[in-house]
TrEMBL record:
Protein name as it appears in the record: Exonuclease domain-containing protein
SUPFAM superfamilies xrefs: GIY-YIG endonuclease, Ribonuclease H-like
CDD domains: DEDDh, GIY-YIG_UvrC_Cho
Gene Ontology MF terms: exonuclease activity
Database matches in SMART domains: EXOIII, GIYc
InterPro entries for this protein: DnaQ, GIY-YIG_endonuc, GIY-YIG_endonuc_sf, GIY-YIG_UvrC_Cho, Ribonucl_H, RNaseH-like_sf, RNaseH_sf
Keywords: Exonuclease, Hydrolase, Nuclease
Occurrences of domain GIY-YIG (ranges): 196-274
A Pfam family assignment: GIY-YIG
PROSITE patterns: GIY_YIG
Length: 455
Protein backbone atom coordinates (compact mmCIF):
# COMPACT_ATOMS: atom_id res chain seq x y z
CA UNK A 1 0.00 0.00 0.00
CA UNK A 2 1.23 3.48 -0.86
CA UNK A 3 0.34 6.76 0.76
CA UNK A 4 0.22 10.30 -0.63
CA UNK A 5 1.02 12.63 2.26
CA UNK A 6 -0.11 16.13 1.37
CA UNK A 7 -0.04 19.72 2.57
CA UNK A 8 -1.33 22.84 0.86
CA UNK A 9 -1.29 26.57 1.48
CA UNK A 10 -4.39 28.53 0.46
CA UNK A 11 -5.88 32.01 0.24
CA UNK A 12 -8.45 31.19 2.91
CA UNK A 13 -10.17 28.57 5.02
CA UNK A 14 -12.99 27.38 2.77
CA UNK A 15 -12.54 25.69 -0.60
CA UNK A 16 -15.65 27.20 -2.16
CA UNK A 17 -14.31 30.75 -2.04
CA UNK A 18 -10.54 30.32 -2.05
CA UNK A 19 -7.66 28.85 -4.03
CA UNK A 20 -4.41 26.94 -3.52
CA UNK A 21 -1.13 28.90 -3.41
CA UNK A 22 1.27 26.01 -2.78
CA UNK A 23 1.14 22.21 -2.73
CA UNK A 24 3.59 19.54 -1.57
CA UNK A 25 3.12 15.78 -1.92
CA UNK A 26 5.31 13.01 -0.52
CA UNK A 27 4.73 9.42 -1.69
CA UNK A 28 5.44 6.88 1.05
CA UNK A 29 5.19 3.08 1.06
CA UNK A 30 4.90 2.70 4.84
CA UNK A 31 8.63 2.19 5.24
CA UNK A 32 10.33 5.05 3.39
CA UNK A 33 9.76 7.96 1.02
CA UNK A 34 9.46 7.09 -2.68
CA UNK A 35 8.93 10.48 -4.31
CA UNK A 36 8.50 14.18 -3.55
CA UNK A 37 6.71 16.97 -5.39
CA UNK A 38 6.20 20.65 -4.58
CA UNK A 39 5.24 23.81 -6.41
CA UNK A 40 3.79 27.25 -5.88
CA UNK A 41 0.37 27.67 -7.50
CA UNK A 42 -1.24 30.77 -8.94
CA UNK A 43 -4.65 30.85 -7.20
CA UNK A 44 -6.18 33.24 -9.71
CA UNK A 45 -7.09 35.64 -6.91
CA UNK A 46 -5.40 38.03 -4.52
CA UNK A 47 -3.79 36.57 -1.42
CA UNK A 48 -5.11 38.39 1.70
CA UNK A 49 -2.47 40.28 3.64
CA UNK A 50 -2.87 38.21 6.82
CA UNK A 51 -2.33 35.01 4.80
CA UNK A 52 0.81 36.53 3.24
CA UNK A 53 2.06 37.34 6.74
CA UNK A 54 1.36 33.79 7.91
CA UNK A 55 2.87 31.80 5.02
CA UNK A 56 5.35 34.26 3.51
CA UNK A 57 3.76 33.63 0.11
CA UNK A 58 2.83 36.91 -1.54
CA UNK A 59 1.12 37.82 -4.80
CA UNK A 60 4.41 38.45 -6.61
CA UNK A 61 5.72 34.97 -5.75
CA UNK A 62 2.75 33.22 -7.39
CA UNK A 63 2.33 35.60 -10.33
CA UNK A 64 4.40 33.37 -12.64
CA UNK A 65 3.51 30.07 -10.96
CA UNK A 66 1.35 27.53 -12.84
CA UNK A 67 -2.38 27.45 -12.26
CA UNK A 68 -3.75 24.30 -10.68
CA UNK A 69 -5.29 23.34 -14.01
CA UNK A 70 -1.81 23.28 -15.55
CA UNK A 71 -0.51 20.83 -12.94
CA UNK A 72 -3.73 18.86 -12.46
CA UNK A 73 -2.52 15.90 -14.52
CA UNK A 74 0.63 15.58 -12.38
CA UNK A 75 -1.34 15.93 -9.14
CA UNK A 76 -3.88 13.34 -10.24
CA UNK A 77 -1.14 10.83 -11.18
CA UNK A 78 0.50 11.27 -7.77
CA UNK A 79 -2.77 10.80 -5.83
CA UNK A 80 -4.46 8.16 -7.98
CA UNK A 81 -4.93 4.78 -6.23
CA UNK A 82 -3.09 5.96 -3.11
CA UNK A 83 -4.30 6.65 0.42
CA UNK A 84 -4.61 10.39 0.95
CA UNK A 85 -3.05 11.59 4.24
CA UNK A 86 -2.95 15.07 5.74
CA UNK A 87 -3.13 16.85 9.07
CA UNK A 88 -6.81 17.93 9.24
CA UNK A 89 -7.38 15.82 6.14
CA UNK A 90 -10.79 17.19 5.13
CA UNK A 91 -9.34 20.67 4.66
CA UNK A 92 -6.66 19.59 2.14
CA UNK A 93 -8.93 16.99 0.53
CA UNK A 94 -11.76 19.48 -0.09
CA UNK A 95 -9.48 21.97 -1.88
CA UNK A 96 -7.73 19.38 -4.05
CA UNK A 97 -10.95 17.52 -4.86
CA UNK A 98 -12.55 20.78 -5.98
CA UNK A 99 -9.59 21.83 -8.13
CA UNK A 100 -9.27 18.41 -9.78
CA UNK A 101 -12.99 18.42 -10.48
CA UNK A 102 -12.68 21.84 -12.16
CA UNK A 103 -9.84 20.44 -14.29
CA UNK A 104 -12.01 17.52 -15.41
CA UNK A 105 -10.65 14.76 -13.15
CA UNK A 106 -13.04 12.50 -11.26
CA UNK A 107 -10.92 11.67 -8.20
CA UNK A 108 -11.81 10.05 -4.90
CA UNK A 109 -9.48 8.45 -2.38
CA UNK A 110 -9.50 6.75 1.02
CA UNK A 111 -8.39 9.26 3.65
CA UNK A 112 -6.37 9.18 6.86
CA UNK A 113 -6.23 12.15 9.20
CA UNK A 114 -3.08 12.45 11.31
CA UNK A 115 -4.98 14.56 13.84
CA UNK A 116 -7.53 11.81 14.51
CA UNK A 117 -4.93 9.05 14.42
CA UNK A 118 -2.74 11.00 16.86
CA UNK A 119 -5.63 11.40 19.30
CA UNK A 120 -6.00 7.61 19.37
CA UNK A 121 -2.35 6.52 19.24
CA UNK A 122 -0.94 9.38 21.37
CA UNK A 123 -3.86 10.16 23.71
CA UNK A 124 -4.09 12.85 26.40
CA UNK A 125 -1.84 15.43 24.80
CA UNK A 126 -2.70 19.08 25.47
CA UNK A 127 -2.92 20.00 21.77
CA UNK A 128 -3.01 18.19 18.43
CA UNK A 129 -2.16 21.13 16.19
CA UNK A 130 0.78 20.21 13.96
CA UNK A 131 3.15 22.62 15.73
CA UNK A 132 2.32 21.52 19.28
CA UNK A 133 2.13 17.84 18.34
CA UNK A 134 5.56 17.88 16.72
CA UNK A 135 6.97 19.76 19.69
CA UNK A 136 5.64 17.09 22.08
CA UNK A 137 6.93 14.23 19.91
CA UNK A 138 10.34 15.77 19.20
CA UNK A 139 9.73 16.40 15.50
CA UNK A 140 11.51 19.39 13.98
CA UNK A 141 9.49 21.50 11.54
CA UNK A 142 11.50 23.47 9.00
CA UNK A 143 9.65 26.32 7.26
CA UNK A 144 6.38 26.23 9.25
CA UNK A 145 3.30 27.17 7.23
CA UNK A 146 5.03 26.30 3.96
CA UNK A 147 3.75 23.23 2.17
CA UNK A 148 6.92 21.13 2.01
CA UNK A 149 8.02 22.09 5.52
CA UNK A 150 4.68 21.04 6.99
CA UNK A 151 4.33 17.92 4.85
CA UNK A 152 7.81 16.65 5.81
CA UNK A 153 6.85 17.07 9.47
CA UNK A 154 3.61 15.18 8.74
CA UNK A 155 5.63 12.38 7.10
CA UNK A 156 7.74 12.00 10.24
CA UNK A 157 4.58 12.10 12.36
CA UNK A 158 2.97 9.39 10.21
CA UNK A 159 6.07 7.20 10.56
CA UNK A 160 5.82 7.55 14.34
CA UNK A 161 2.12 6.70 14.17
CA UNK A 162 2.90 3.55 12.18
CA UNK A 163 5.62 2.54 14.66
CA UNK A 164 3.43 3.07 17.74
CA UNK A 165 0.20 1.64 16.31
CA UNK A 166 0.14 -1.48 18.49
CA UNK A 167 -3.66 -1.79 18.19
CA UNK A 168 -3.72 -1.65 14.36
CA UNK A 169 -5.75 1.55 14.47
CA UNK A 170 -4.53 2.64 11.04
CA UNK A 171 -5.56 -0.62 9.35
CA UNK A 172 -8.88 -0.61 11.18
CA UNK A 173 -9.54 2.96 10.05
CA UNK A 174 -8.82 2.07 6.44
CA UNK A 175 -10.91 -1.09 6.51
CA UNK A 176 -13.72 0.50 8.45
CA UNK A 177 -16.84 0.56 6.34
CA UNK A 178 -20.11 1.59 7.81
CA UNK A 179 -23.08 -0.48 6.71
CA UNK A 180 -25.28 1.73 4.63
CA UNK A 181 -27.98 1.23 2.10
CA UNK A 182 -28.32 4.07 -0.33
CA UNK A 183 -30.71 4.03 -3.26
CA UNK A 184 -28.87 3.05 -6.41
CA UNK A 185 -29.54 6.38 -8.13
CA UNK A 186 -27.57 8.30 -5.48
CA UNK A 187 -23.87 8.86 -6.07
CA UNK A 188 -22.13 6.46 -3.66
CA UNK A 189 -18.86 8.39 -3.85
CA UNK A 190 -20.64 11.48 -2.50
CA UNK A 191 -21.58 9.52 0.61
CA UNK A 192 -18.09 8.09 1.12
CA UNK A 193 -16.54 11.56 1.30
CA UNK A 194 -18.94 12.77 4.02
CA UNK A 195 -17.10 13.54 7.29
CA UNK A 196 -18.22 12.55 10.78
CA UNK A 197 -18.12 16.15 11.94
CA UNK A 198 -20.57 18.99 12.52
CA UNK A 199 -21.91 20.92 9.55
CA UNK A 200 -24.62 21.11 6.95
CA UNK A 201 -25.40 18.69 4.15
CA UNK A 202 -26.98 19.49 0.80
CA UNK A 203 -29.17 17.11 -1.19
CA UNK A 204 -29.18 17.93 -4.90
CA UNK A 205 -31.30 16.70 -7.78
CA UNK A 206 -30.15 15.30 -11.10
CA UNK A 207 -29.48 18.82 -12.40
CA UNK A 208 -27.36 19.75 -9.39
CA UNK A 209 -29.94 22.08 -7.83
CA UNK A 210 -30.20 22.11 -4.02
CA UNK A 211 -33.48 20.52 -2.96
CA UNK A 212 -32.84 20.10 0.78
CA UNK A 213 -30.53 21.54 3.42
CA UNK A 214 -29.99 19.89 6.80
CA UNK A 215 -27.66 20.33 9.74
CA UNK A 216 -25.91 17.70 11.85
CA UNK A 217 -23.33 17.18 14.57
CA UNK A 218 -22.23 14.10 12.59
CA UNK A 219 -22.87 14.72 8.90
CA UNK A 220 -22.36 11.15 7.68
CA UNK A 221 -24.55 9.63 10.39
CA UNK A 222 -27.34 12.14 9.85
CA UNK A 223 -27.35 11.71 6.07
CA UNK A 224 -27.55 7.95 6.45
CA UNK A 225 -30.56 8.30 8.76
CA UNK A 226 -32.58 9.79 5.88
CA UNK A 227 -32.41 6.45 4.08
CA UNK A 228 -33.11 4.16 7.03
CA UNK A 229 -36.50 3.21 8.41
CA UNK A 230 -39.55 1.85 6.67
CA UNK A 231 -41.68 4.91 6.01
CA UNK A 232 -43.38 4.05 2.69
CA UNK A 233 -45.29 7.34 2.34
CA UNK A 234 -45.48 8.92 -1.09
CA UNK A 235 -44.01 12.15 0.27
CA UNK A 236 -40.90 10.41 1.60
CA UNK A 237 -40.43 8.33 -1.54
CA UNK A 238 -40.72 11.42 -3.69
CA UNK A 239 -38.10 13.12 -1.52
CA UNK A 240 -35.65 10.21 -1.79
CA UNK A 241 -36.22 9.80 -5.53
CA UNK A 242 -35.27 13.46 -6.06
CA UNK A 243 -31.85 13.04 -4.39
CA UNK A 244 -29.00 12.27 -6.79
CA UNK A 245 -26.02 14.06 -5.25
CA UNK A 246 -24.90 14.89 -1.72
CA UNK A 247 -22.59 17.73 -0.74
CA UNK A 248 -21.56 19.18 2.61
CA UNK A 249 -19.93 22.08 4.43
CA UNK A 250 -18.25 21.58 7.79
CA UNK A 251 -19.04 24.07 10.54
CA UNK A 252 -16.81 23.32 13.52
CA UNK A 253 -19.67 23.72 16.01
CA UNK A 254 -23.34 22.84 16.19
CA UNK A 255 -24.29 26.50 16.56
CA UNK A 256 -22.47 27.40 13.34
CA UNK A 257 -24.24 24.48 11.62
CA UNK A 258 -27.64 25.83 12.73
CA UNK A 259 -26.82 29.32 11.46
CA UNK A 260 -25.38 27.99 8.18
CA UNK A 261 -28.53 25.90 7.67
CA UNK A 262 -30.79 28.94 8.15
CA UNK A 263 -28.71 31.12 5.85
CA UNK A 264 -28.55 28.47 3.12
CA UNK A 265 -32.31 27.84 3.25
CA UNK A 266 -33.03 31.56 3.00
CA UNK A 267 -30.67 31.80 -0.01
CA UNK A 268 -32.02 28.82 -1.96
CA UNK A 269 -35.49 27.99 -0.54
CA UNK A 270 -35.07 24.27 -1.43
CA UNK A 271 -38.31 22.60 -2.43
CA UNK A 272 -38.10 19.95 0.31
CA UNK A 273 -37.42 22.51 3.03
CA UNK A 274 -41.05 23.50 2.80
CA UNK A 275 -40.52 26.58 4.95
CA UNK A 276 -37.81 28.09 7.05
CA UNK A 277 -38.37 27.14 10.67
CA UNK A 278 -41.00 29.56 11.98
CA UNK A 279 -39.56 30.19 15.40
CA UNK A 280 -41.17 33.60 15.68
CA UNK A 281 -41.40 35.69 18.84
CA UNK A 282 -44.65 35.51 20.76
CA UNK A 283 -44.89 39.06 22.08
CA UNK A 284 -43.53 42.52 21.40
CA UNK A 285 -43.37 46.00 22.87
CA UNK A 286 -44.87 48.29 20.24
CA UNK A 287 -45.07 52.05 19.86
CA UNK A 288 -47.83 53.92 18.05
CA UNK A 289 -49.31 57.40 17.92
CA UNK A 290 -52.93 58.01 18.92
CA UNK A 291 -55.37 60.47 17.37
CA UNK A 292 -54.20 63.30 19.58
CA UNK A 293 -50.56 62.75 18.62
CA UNK A 294 -49.47 61.10 21.88
CA UNK A 295 -46.90 58.32 21.62
CA UNK A 296 -48.24 55.19 23.29
CA UNK A 297 -46.62 51.91 24.30
CA UNK A 298 -48.37 48.58 23.98
CA UNK A 299 -47.48 44.96 24.85
CA UNK A 300 -49.16 42.76 22.27
CA UNK A 301 -48.88 39.34 20.62
CA UNK A 302 -46.38 39.19 17.73
CA UNK A 303 -47.54 40.82 14.54
CA UNK A 304 -45.25 40.49 11.53
CA UNK A 305 -46.92 43.50 9.94
CA UNK A 306 -45.65 45.80 12.69
CA UNK A 307 -42.06 46.20 13.88
CA UNK A 308 -41.64 45.95 17.63
CA UNK A 309 -39.26 47.97 19.78
CA UNK A 310 -38.27 44.65 21.38
CA UNK A 311 -39.46 41.04 21.10
CA UNK A 312 -40.18 38.58 23.92
CA UNK A 313 -40.92 34.91 24.44
CA UNK A 314 -43.19 35.56 27.45
CA UNK A 315 -45.75 38.28 28.06
CA UNK A 316 -44.61 38.67 31.67
CA UNK A 317 -41.16 39.78 30.49
CA UNK A 318 -42.67 42.39 28.18
CA UNK A 319 -45.08 43.62 30.87
CA UNK A 320 -42.24 43.88 33.35
CA UNK A 321 -40.17 46.05 31.00
CA UNK A 322 -43.14 48.30 30.29
CA UNK A 323 -43.78 48.74 34.03
CA UNK A 324 -40.10 49.64 34.55
CA UNK A 325 -40.29 52.26 31.79
CA UNK A 326 -43.49 53.71 33.24
CA UNK A 327 -41.95 54.07 36.71
CA UNK A 328 -38.62 55.43 35.52
CA UNK A 329 -39.86 57.91 32.92
CA UNK A 330 -43.24 58.83 34.47
CA UNK A 331 -45.27 57.41 31.61
CA UNK A 332 -49.02 57.62 32.07
CA UNK A 333 -50.87 54.33 32.76
CA UNK A 334 -53.64 55.76 30.58
CA UNK A 335 -51.32 55.70 27.55
CA UNK A 336 -49.61 52.35 28.20
CA UNK A 337 -51.22 48.95 27.69
CA UNK A 338 -50.11 45.70 29.30
CA UNK A 339 -50.90 42.32 27.78
CA UNK A 340 -53.67 40.40 29.51
CA UNK A 341 -55.34 37.12 28.67
CA UNK A 342 -58.66 38.78 29.52
CA UNK A 343 -58.31 42.37 28.32
CA UNK A 344 -60.46 44.85 30.19
CA UNK A 345 -63.01 47.02 28.46
CA UNK A 346 -61.45 50.48 28.51
CA UNK A 347 -63.39 53.69 28.66
CA UNK A 348 -62.36 56.61 26.45
CA UNK A 349 -59.13 58.15 27.68
CA UNK A 350 -59.31 61.19 29.87
CA UNK A 351 -56.29 63.29 28.90
CA UNK A 352 -56.60 65.40 32.06
CA UNK A 353 -53.52 65.25 34.28
CA UNK A 354 -51.36 64.01 31.39
CA UNK A 355 -48.34 66.20 30.51
CA UNK A 356 -48.46 68.35 27.41
CA UNK A 357 -48.00 66.51 24.11
CA UNK A 358 -44.43 67.63 23.39
CA UNK A 359 -43.23 66.98 26.95
CA UNK A 360 -44.88 63.55 27.18
CA UNK A 361 -43.58 62.38 23.81
CA UNK A 362 -40.08 63.43 24.88
CA UNK A 363 -40.45 61.20 27.97
CA UNK A 364 -41.47 58.28 25.72
CA UNK A 365 -38.45 58.94 23.48
CA UNK A 366 -36.18 58.84 26.54
CA UNK A 367 -37.70 55.51 27.55
CA UNK A 368 -37.14 54.06 24.08
CA UNK A 369 -33.55 55.36 24.01
CA UNK A 370 -33.02 53.44 27.25
CA UNK A 371 -34.34 50.23 25.66
CA UNK A 372 -32.09 50.69 22.63
CA UNK A 373 -29.08 51.25 24.91
CA UNK A 374 -29.73 47.85 26.49
CA UNK A 375 -29.23 46.05 23.20
CA UNK A 376 -26.37 43.55 23.07
CA UNK A 377 -23.25 43.81 20.90
CA UNK A 378 -20.54 41.15 21.12
CA UNK A 379 -18.47 38.58 19.26
CA UNK A 380 -18.46 34.85 20.02
CA UNK A 381 -15.14 33.16 19.26
CA UNK A 382 -15.28 29.36 19.10
CA UNK A 383 -13.57 26.39 17.48
CA UNK A 384 -13.31 26.26 13.70
CA UNK A 385 -13.41 23.46 11.16
CA UNK A 386 -9.76 22.67 11.79
CA UNK A 387 -7.06 23.51 14.31
CA UNK A 388 -5.76 26.46 12.29
CA UNK A 389 -8.93 28.54 12.43
CA UNK A 390 -11.63 29.85 14.73
CA UNK A 391 -15.29 30.52 14.09
CA UNK A 392 -16.73 33.92 14.88
CA UNK A 393 -20.27 35.23 15.33
CA UNK A 394 -20.79 38.99 15.27
CA UNK A 395 -23.88 40.16 17.14
CA UNK A 396 -24.63 43.90 16.97
CA UNK A 397 -27.55 45.77 18.56
CA UNK A 398 -29.47 42.55 19.26
CA UNK A 399 -29.05 41.34 15.68
CA UNK A 400 -26.86 38.61 14.21
CA UNK A 401 -24.83 40.63 11.70
CA UNK A 402 -22.24 38.14 10.37
CA UNK A 403 -20.66 34.76 11.04
CA UNK A 404 -17.73 32.93 9.51
CA UNK A 405 -14.19 31.68 10.05
CA UNK A 406 -10.82 33.33 10.59
CA UNK A 407 -7.28 31.96 10.77
CA UNK A 408 -5.88 31.72 14.31
CA UNK A 409 -2.78 33.64 13.25
CA UNK A 410 -4.76 36.46 11.67
CA UNK A 411 -3.44 39.67 13.23
CA UNK A 412 -6.87 41.31 12.86
CA UNK A 413 -8.60 42.00 16.16
CA UNK A 414 -10.91 44.83 15.12
CA UNK A 415 -14.52 43.68 14.87
CA UNK A 416 -15.16 45.54 11.63
CA UNK A 417 -11.97 44.26 9.94
CA UNK A 418 -12.77 40.67 10.88
CA UNK A 419 -15.97 40.56 8.85
CA UNK A 420 -15.73 39.35 5.26
CA UNK A 421 -18.46 40.51 2.90
CA UNK A 422 -19.57 36.93 2.26
CA UNK A 423 -20.06 36.41 6.02
CA UNK A 424 -22.72 39.11 6.39
CA UNK A 425 -26.27 37.92 6.81
CA UNK A 426 -29.86 38.96 7.31
CA UNK A 427 -30.93 37.32 10.54
CA UNK A 428 -34.31 36.42 11.93
CA UNK A 429 -35.67 35.99 15.43
CA UNK A 430 -34.77 32.28 15.50
CA UNK A 431 -31.13 32.91 14.57
CA UNK A 432 -30.85 35.78 17.08
CA UNK A 433 -32.32 33.58 19.83
CA UNK A 434 -29.84 30.79 19.08
CA UNK A 435 -26.91 33.18 19.49
CA UNK A 436 -28.22 34.77 22.69
CA UNK A 437 -28.91 31.38 24.29
CA UNK A 438 -25.42 30.18 23.37
CA UNK A 439 -23.82 33.35 24.75
CA UNK A 440 -25.69 32.80 28.02
CA UNK A 441 -24.53 29.16 28.24
CA UNK A 442 -20.89 29.86 27.35
CA UNK A 443 -19.97 33.35 28.63
CA UNK A 444 -16.25 32.57 28.37
CA UNK A 445 -16.53 32.56 24.56
CA UNK A 446 -18.17 35.99 24.44
CA UNK A 447 -16.15 39.19 23.88
CA UNK A 448 -17.95 42.40 24.80
CA UNK A 449 -15.13 44.86 24.13
CA UNK A 450 -16.15 47.57 21.72
CA UNK A 451 -13.07 47.42 19.50
CA UNK A 452 -10.91 44.34 19.84
CA UNK A 453 -11.20 40.61 20.36
CA UNK A 454 -8.61 38.10 21.58
CA UNK A 455 -8.44 34.45 20.44
Amino acid sequence: MEYAIVDIETTGSYAGDNGITEIAIVIHNGEHVLEKFETLVNPGTTIPYHIQSLTGIDNEMVSNAPSFRNIAKTIYSLLHKRVFIAHNVNFDYSFINQELKKAGYDWKAPKLCTVRLSRKIFPNLASYSLGKLCQNLGITIHHRHRAMGDVEATVTLFEKLLKNDSDSIIDTTLKKTKEHRLPTHINQEDFLQLPETAGIYLFKNKSGNIIYVGKAVNIRKRVLSHFSGNNPSQKRQSFINDIHHIDFEESGTELMALLMECKMIKQHWPIHNQALKKFEPKFGLFEYEDQKGYKRLLVSPFNKQAKAIQYFERATEANQLLLELMNTYQLSPKLCSFYSIRPEQKAPIDYQNIPALEQYNAQVDQALDYVIALRNSFVIIDQGRNLDEKSYIYFKNDQLTAFGFIHVDNPTREFADMIAEKDKCLSNYYMNSLVLQYAERFPGKVHYESNKVNF
